[in-house]
Amino acid sequence: MSVEIPLDDLSVSEKVRLLERVWDSLCSKYGDVRSPDWHRDVLEARKRRLAEGQATVSSWSEAKTWLLDAGR
């Protein structure tokens, strides 16, 4: 099955909501969704930057608000 979604026509906030729905669907149906190996390396690099004070973090709520506002 092929689904065409007009991504260029969607705002950032609509794209975020779409991603959330897809992720929720994956998790509810497949439970154990594993990340690819390269993702571990990316996360380790980010943890290292945090430990070294070169990065900051936001809560998911703050990040989601920022993303949704950016799309307006």
Q: Brief overview, please?
A:
By secondary structure, this protein is mainly α. The protein contains three helices and no strands. The longest helix is centred in the N-terminal third of the chain and has 19 residues, at 12-30.
Which secondary structure elements does this structure contain, and how are they paired or packed?
Elements: H1 12-30, H2 37-51, H3 60-70
Helix pairs in contact: 1-3
Describe the structure.
- The protein has 72 residues and is an all-alpha fold.
- The chain has one domain.
- The chain is 62% helix and 0% strand.
- It is built from three helices and no strands.
- α1 packs across α3.
- The longest helix is centred in the N-terminal third of the chain and has 19 residues.
- The chain is extended and about 45 Å long.
- The termini are far apart.
- The model has no long low-confidence stretch (mean pLDDT 89).
